[in-house]
Please model this.
Amino acid sequence: MKTDATAPPQKKKAVDWVTIRADFPILDQEVHGQPLIYFDNAATTQKPRAVLDALRRYYERDNANVHRGIHELSNRATAAFEAARVRAAAFVNARSAQEIIFTRGTTESINLVAQAWGSHNVKAGNRILLTEMEHHSNIVPWQLLAERTGAKLVYLPVTGDIGLLDLSHFDQWLAEGTKLFAMTHISNSLGTINPVSELCARARNLGITTLVDAAQSAGHRPLDVQEIGCDFLAFSGHKMCGPTGIGVLYGRQEVLEEMPPYQGGGEMILNVDLQQSTWKHAPHKFEAGTPDISGAVGLHAAMDYLDAIGRHKIAAHDQELGAYAYAKVSRLKGGIRLFGPHIGRAGLVSFLLKDVHAHDVVTVADQRGVALRGGHHCNQPLMRKLGVESTARASFYFYNTTTEIDRFSEVLGEIQNFFGG
Ligand code: 7TS
Model:
């Protein structure tokens, strides 16, 4: 199936972003008496009517448990669940739907790999290579694996506030007994877009298994796992217009088949005896228990929705918003420290105002209807590297506007005046 990921960029028709914004009922409200400006999209995105309708339709017409019954509703629920798997395979251009495992989200996808693949393949003395810009969910599961196996974690450095990976000794890092290289595609704190295809190719040449954390990229740009050349890729439905509680782990079929199960229970077995059991093939052997069926249905609707807009167009719009915001806030007079690359950044800005704590920025912005996030963004090692405890962050999605960014920048000016004066 031809996906948006492999289609040439669609240049012809300009997108009417204002009409698209009207698909999101939640955005049309006031908070503290001010129009809501939702700039916390890296944490979770809002849901369009198409997704809300799909969830309602599923529960009103088709709800039943999957894979077990032979009655009509169970068949419909199973068909809807498996259709979502086929859709997810097309969304990332996997070779087959067998390479798609449904999980609770990026975090569970990475834990699944660390547990099932890691325990089978990683031994004492092996190295796991990460980067200093990883989210905790791409650090802690590997720490648990390292504790169990005696493996060692090593980190590709980040080049300070500019937030790029320092690749000067990359081949050396890879050469030294490294079993797995796991990296984020887009940093949730810096907005850095890592060259994952190039990094995976260099690791693959040395026989190293690769995992890409696509939590911040899956809903923002085309993704093609064959072009990236990774063994695993993880993402969350809720960061791309889908429901919370559903995510995807893509795994290359040959790698999945060799992995033991992740959790045990119903749905994943062929036969159970009192002392031992046998498993289904991937992906089912990794999906114990009743899955998030409605979540998969909602995710299916979200993927259709994003591709109807066009992910190339979403990526271009994202970068425009990111660049506009970066330029706008860097002109603020009262002193602002910006994190992440100057150009080629994703649609977010991470910053600190001089002498104002990030939490104060977020609290005052909230009073003016602007939803930001302040804290370590689950990047404590990165924060330490940058020499800060926290940053304030505004993260955009395609339904945000430059007018909202203008207001956000004005609010930052007011905050500077308030705390500076
Ligand atoms: N990886 C990255 C790069 C992320 O940004 C996040 C969540 C995760 C993994 C975990 O995703 P989950 O869906 O399993 O929770 N990032 C954020 C954030 O930046 N603010 O809140 C959550």
Notes: Residues 42-43, 105-107, 135, 137-138, 184, 188, 213, 215-216, 236, 377-378 surround 7TS (CB under 6 Å). Residues 121 and 225 are 22 Å apart (CA to CA).
